[in-house]
Amino acid sequence: MTSSPNPALDQWALDREIVLSRVIKARREVVFAAWSDPDHLPNWFGPTGFRIETKEIDIRVGGLWRFEMIAPDGQRWQSRMEFRRIEPPALIAFDHGADEPDDPGRFRTTITFDEQSDGKTVITLRQLHPSKAQRDQGIGFGAVEFGYQTLEKLARHVESPAS
Fold first, then answer.
1. Domain of 49, in residue numbers
2. What is the residue-level pLDDT of the chain in tens, covering all 163 positions?
3. Which of 24, 30, 39, 96 has the largest CB neighbor count within 10 A?
4. Which CATH number does the domain housing residue 153 bear?
5. Global confidence as pTM
């Protein structure tokens, strides 16, 4: 694939992207808060059976969430999100990768929160990877399945009476 003469048009190159979407039975402000409140995010984030141990969490533009994602078998992934854009209650964008400065494998995630007239929210996650090969590796690892499991955990979190 050749590069576009306008690099901005390449920002959403389909061969480098993973897109997930789900309708959640909760108001947009509630779903947005689950992503932007440090008291909520670590409680539901991650695939089924995984748990999160937070080292640092500062959800603001330029802030970091450093955490370990722990699989059911005990395997640990050192992770970092650096928040790039936060536009309540419509959008959050962050770079996600290993917990190291300038991780070459990090990717940009943009989440949009679209309110429906019936009080539900359409949440869309767009992961933009640095290359098609990295995107394909993520898909092979289970990024799509794990992503939908994460959205299921989010839905359970915000749709429960205690949220």
1. 15-159
2. 444 444 444 555 789 999 999 999 999 999 999 999 999 999 999 999 999 999 999 999 999 999 999 999 999 999 999 999 999 999 999 999 999 988 999 999 999 999 999 999 999 999 999 999 999 999 999 999 999 999 999 999 999 765 5
3. 24
4. 3.30.530.20
5. 0.88
